Amino acid sequence: MTSHTLHPQRLDGDILTPQGWRRGCAHLSQGRITAIDGPLVSEPEVRAARRALILPGFVDLHVHGGGGFDTMEGGPAIEHIARMHARHGTTSLLATTMTAPMGELRQAMAALAPTIAGPIRGAARVLGVHLEGPYINSGKLGAQPDFARAASVQEVLALHALAPIRLITLAPEMPGHLEMIEPLRAAGFVVQAGHSNGSYEDGVAALEHGATGFTHLFNAMSGLHHRSPGMAGAALAHARFAEIIPDLLHVHPGALRVALRAIPCLYCVTDSTAAAGMPDGEYRLGRHTVTKCLGGVRLADGTLAGSTLTMDQALRNLVGLGLEIEDASRRVSTYAAEFLGLHDRGHLSPGAMADVLVLNPELNIERVIVEGEEIDLAHAG
To answer: Could you give all domains of the chain from N- to C-terminal order, each with its CATH number?
Structure first.
């Protein structure tokens, strides 16, 4: 349920803008931000004042599920997923696929199409699909089922015709994949390297061919060694953008700090599964059954299988590591939007989408507004 509030609104508090914090008012009308007024203030002043904090809505480019539902179920499932994540401040997301036989991928894409075509009332905006598989290395599946295959531009375009693909993960070391990156980019897709056992040189070559990011940095990729830097080393040495899962389980806080220092626009994703927002128990992740317990989600053999993370907790985790709220906000909103080329999301500026959060000083969500519509937090999810 939502309150349909596309008429003019005014939000008062400390507002995070691209220029810094402003103590004043944000004005919204017809789903857009029309004005932001008030003097600039410093973050120490914001923390001391303990006023309402007004931040851009979170942008999550890697969502497998939530609220007991999995994206591979299609249709109604993604509506439940988008509502659950909206309750935690996500205003835009990409529905992320699992590696599967092509028939299952086509079925899932066709079922996702209607929810991508138009807004879902009371939910985060589903901007398109992140095709995480099947163009990955079977030696670095992580929790993906073993249906990896060679990439084909024609195959991607056929899937794209069913539902709009915005982001593609592929393993650049697989035969023919480097040569695939440029035509995929030319066709309008954003490409990133991931689920890869490739070398440092493979990662550098992927960037040179037009890949612009890395999928869940450190996870399901060849690691950094001082004589064999691997895919992770290529990202740390050369990438401007990479996604990372900051649940403090997938990546040690020390490694997260390394990535924060090395990659200018490191941004956060949840890699959330159906278990997000749910009690401990068994859930679906594509073809897999996964178990949520002890704060994580795992396959029967103990392999981490996505997360239970929500983006509001990601923000709190970053601030807990010592980041300023302003820096943490960029990493859960702005950089992901920039990576995907979304110029009117991920920041609070006149003309931008009215994707707005109101948080209390403890960084807990109090209000969520998606494209000018306020989510009824009591009934969302």
So the answer is: 2-54+363-375 (no CATH), 58-345 (3.20.20.140)
